[in-house]
Amino acid sequence: MTLYHDLLEERGVLLCDGATGTNYFALGLETGHPPEFWVLEKPDLVLGLHCRFLDAGSDIILTNSFGGTSFRLKLHQAEDQVATLNIAAAKLARQAADEHHAATGRKVLVAGSMGPTGELFQPLGMLDHATAVAAFQEQAKALKEGGVDLLWIETISSIEEVNAAFEAASSTGLPVASTMTFDTAGKSMMGVNPDDYARHVGGLGAVALGANCGVGPSELLHSVLQMKIDDAPVLIAKGNCGIPEYRDGSIHYHGSPELMAKYAILARDAGIKLIGGCCGTTPEHIKAMRDAIDQTPPSGDVTLDRVAAEIGQPWQGLDASKGQDSDGQGRGGSSRRRRRRDG
After folding, report:
1. 37-96 per-position pLDDT tens digit
2. What distance in Å separates the CA atoms of residue 73 and residue 67, rounded to the nearest whole number?
3. pTM score, whole prediction
4. In this structure, how many other beta carbons lie within 10 angstroms of the beta carbon of residue 120?
5. Do residues 100 and 71 make contact, with C-beta atoms less than 8 angstroms apart?
6. What pLDDT does residue 248 have?
7. How high is the pLDDT of residue 324?
8. Domains, the chain, ranges and CATH?
């Protein structure tokens, strides 16, 4: 048994953290500057955000290593810094977790964030399986060296990429969790359905699987509810803080702490065990989610009607089952390469 399994058995539901980049922007991160660089440039701010999420009640914090593969770092001429940046990211999160445990007696988990390469796999692009595995493995080994408890593959959109990332992460011997993003008419950017994803990743041996990012929390829950299949492992819901809107030259998220608290209760009542926030989610949102989970008794099964009534109709104006609306464009759909989970 690992610490992950022990804490899940002990607490039943584990609360994850929220956004990285959104909160860094509030601390002065400039658009276009990689957040991963802050583990060396501004370690006190990285450590501070981890601590704020832990103080808010998170049981799991993710390392600041989302774009930590050589493919992503190459965009900033830092492809030779994979080990340095990922080890530093893991050590900062480990420090926050250990200090929190020493101060409160509460054990928490550090998950090593592994985001997508940003490249397309063959035959649509140039990336092949072996090259992708090597890149993910370089990152995974560094995160393990830095002291993470498990590896957390996130914001993936293709089966090919999750195969490569999972193979690399599994080679470390650490538990592996994995989330895909569904934001194109209820499918991933590469056309994967939630239930197909769950069957595939469950078969790989993930200790937990689910969805993150995407559009808003109601759409996120719609996706994860489809993953409740026979023999499915623990489910993850890590939704954005409301629906993203482009305003005044930047992305804004409209979700209040109250909205995210309702989302957390719906997720818990649906049987989802790992619950957190993604883009736009602050420690204040996580505190509201912690209080709601701890203080609100279960209230029955979760249906799409209940989701719609409490936090909004998923995919409003869009028939997600058909994969597109009348003009072929899904709300929240995107032709861009997979955006950062951390907003």
Report:
1. 999 999 999 999 999 999 999 999 999 999 999 999 999 999 999 999 999 999 999 999
2. 7
3. 0.92
4. 16
5. no
6. 78
7. 31
8. 3-322 (3.20.20.330)
Return the amino acid letter for 201: V
Whether residue 343 contacts residue 21, with contact meaning beta carbons closer than 8 Å, is answered with yes
- pLDDT value at residue 208: 98
Encode burial over 250-276: b for 16+ CB neighbours within 10 A, e otherwise: ebebebebebbbbbbbbbbbbbbbbbb
- Chain centre distance of CA 243: 16
| Residues in CB range of 283: below 8 A, 6 or more apart | 18, 23, 49, 52, 53, 55, 56
Question: Residue 111 in contact with residue 86, Cβ under 8 Å?
Answer: no
Residue 81 CA to residue 143 CA, distance in Å, equals: 13
Cβ(43)–Cβ(49) under 8 Å?
Answer: no
- What is the pLDDT, as a whole number, of residue 317? 61
User: What number is the average pLDDT over the span 273-282?
Assistant: 97
Angstrom distance (rounded) from CA 145 to CA 114: 15
Cβ(78)–Cβ(71) under 8 Å?
no
Quick: pLDDT tens for 152-187.
Answer: 999 999 999 999 999 999 999 999 999 999 987 899
Residue 173 burial (C-beta neighbours within 10 Å; 0-12, 13-18, 19+): exposed
